[in-house]
Specification:
The structure is a single chain. This protein is of the alpha+beta class. It has 11 helices and 8 strands. The protein has helices at residues 23-47, 52-60, 79-92, 94-98, 101-113, 116-127, 245-274, 291-323, 327-359, 371-380, 386-399, and strands at residues 5-6, 149-153, 156-166, 174-183, 186-195, 201-204, 218-227, 232-234. Strands 1-6-7-3-2 form a 5-stranded antiparallel β-sheet, with no helix packed on it. Strands 4-5-8 form a 3-stranded antiparallel β-sheet, with helices on one face. It is globular, with a radius of gyration of 22 Å.
Length: 409
């Protein structure tokens, strides 16, 4: 499916967001916001209605600024709180929960590698209500020279190239863009914060995946886009030393998968209680008394609880590594997050599949759109291959080998 390019700028920030000051306040705000968007999530998915107004409300809660460190005016919440906030929103609407993932990711890259003046500038923009999208991924380009480039001409910097799977770029005020640059014969990568309104930026609303339909994960073209040198951050250098960029990013992905599974589980309970009929051989009047249904519900519940426990443990180790990053703390955090991501993937898929198995044929009606849970979690869990996380975990525990440092583990 091909859709028209988006050439208009993101809406101006019409209201300054509420300033969240604590972890408890962040969780309360997430629950309140989730309650307001849950009822309309199915329609947005079914009709592919881009959530412009919902995102404005989301930002207005202050939740998009909760990882700004306290010394820069933010709440500086723990990784565990961010993961819980993400899961709460994902249970209500999986697409909405994914949109700020790269926003938080860019803020972590800024925290780890940004200069003081860069931190103050961009943290202030976020506290004022501006959003970051992303332009990180490219399709099938193994040749470094063919990737999106940061070029220099007559002392000025430019970005040239095309990015795909740019989640949130449609809605963004800034598009953090991964670029390559050759310096003294050595290829390096940087993250450039490109204003969405910059001349030469074209955003295509061409995401056509069967799940996560309104994440705005389309294509972005950069045609000789001028770059402010003050908006260029080191990227590759931040992985040449132990940092939490990778496990931090993956923790949020795991929380999205868990949250979608929790949303599917909640719909399963409601359907079985209110609409399901007991199977004839169960010899009971209500579906809620069917012994096999009870057994399956228990299994889904346990998988989700176990996934939550691993996510909580991983978040604690990410917090430790953020305070004292070294080879051991970052490796421990990465492995713990990989474990959580594996189980969140399996629990989310199980919950979304069991919704139909336990609810029966009537749960497949398009008016309910329950298949959005499976489509969303199946799509999102493909973000990074879980099979490689098993391998990294085995190497860590059997051979004492630390995992590679990058944003996908």
């Amino acid at each position: 499916m091909t859709r028209a390019a988006i050439v208009s700028p993101a809406p101006p920030v019409s209201r300054r967001p509420h300033l969240i000051t604590s972890d408890a306040e962040a969780l309360s705000a997430a629950r309140s916001f989730a309650d307001t968007v849950k009822a309309s999530a199915s329609r947005r998915d079914a009709e592919r209605l881009l959530p412009w107004l919902e995102l404005d409300d989301f930002v207005a809660t202050g939740l998009w600024a909760i990882t700004v460190p306290k010394e820069y005016g933010g709440a500086g919440v723990s990784a565990g709180t961010l993961a819980q906030v993400t899961a709460i929103i994902a249970a209500a609407d999986g697409s909405l929960a994914q949109i700020p993932q790269n926003h938080y990711y860019a803020l972590e890259v800024l925290r780890v590698g940004g200069r003081e003046e860069q931190k103050r500038f961009f943290y202030d923009r976020v506290l004022a209500g501006e959003r970051f999208g992303n332009a990180l991924a490219e399709i099938g380009l193994r040749d470094f020279k063919r990737r999106t480039q940061l070029l220099e001409d007559s002392g000025r910097l430019f970005v040239q190239g095309t990015k795909y799977y740019c989640t949130g770029a449609i809605y963004a005020h800034w598009i953090p863009t991964l670029v390559s640059r050759t310096e003294d014969g050595t290829a390096r990568t940087y993250l450039v914060f490109v204003p969405r309104t910059a001349l030469g930026v074209t955003i295509h609303d061409d995401w056509d995946g069967f799940g996560q339909r309104v994440t705005g994960s389309g294509t972005v073209n950069f045609d000789r886009v001028a770059v402010n040198p003050d908006h260029v951050l080191p990227f590759q250098a931040s992985f040449e030393r132990p940092t939490t960029i990778g496990p931090f990013a993956q923790l949020i992905h795991a929380a999205i998968d868990l949250g979608i599974g929790q949303g599917a589980y909640g719909d399963t309970l409601d359907f079985v209680r209110e609409r399901s009929r007991a199977w004839i051989d169960a010899k009971v009047e209500k579906a809620t008394d069917d012994p096999l249904t009870l057994s399956e519900v228990g299994q889904v519940h346990i998988r989700l609880r176990a996934s939550q426990a691993l996510l909580d443990r991983a978040a604690r180790l990410v917090d430790v590594a953020m305070v004292a990053p070294d080879e051991d703390t970052v490796a421990a955090a990465s492995i713990a997050v990989a474990e959580a991501k594996i189980l969140a993937t399996r629990a989310g898929l199980l919950a979304s599949n069991k919704l139909f198995e336990l609810s029966g044929t009537s749960s497949t009606m398009s008016t309910d759109n329950y298949d959005r849970h499976w489509r969303n979690v199946r799509t999102h869990t493909l973000h990074d291959p879980v099979r490689w996380k098993f391998q990294a975990i085995g190497q860590y525990y059997l051979n004492g080998r630390r995992p590679p440092r990058h944003g996908a583990l």
